[in-house]
Amino acid sequence: MSALPNVKPYDPGDKAPKPEKTVTIVINGQQKTVGKQEELTFEEVVTLSGEVPSPGSVGVQYSIQYTRGHGSKPAGTLVEGQSVKVKDGMEFDVTPTNRS
């Protein structure tokens, strides 16, 4: 039996890449779709929030509260340097603060 021209034999390793899984979270009332990773860092949440300090602002820090998280920690505060495990429907409130 001869092979058909331009037909490659089946190789189980030739699978199409799976589409990236995503979750929808809410940051300051705005829905954001992110890749379903284990965790989001404080810095990633601030960036996703779109909060940008005004030019010339000095000492702007951010406060992040979250709700609708995973069962072991459904609500809490995220501080600089921390990360939190995300899930679909999780809500974040990012607030700029001026602290000296």
Automatic annotation (TrEMBL):
Region (Disordered), start-end ranges: 1-20
Multi-ubiquitin domain residues: 23-97
Residue stretches of biased makeup (Basic and acidic residues): 11-20
Official protein name in the record: Multi-ubiquitin domain-containing protein
Organism encoding this protein: Ancylobacter novellus (Thiobacillus novellus)
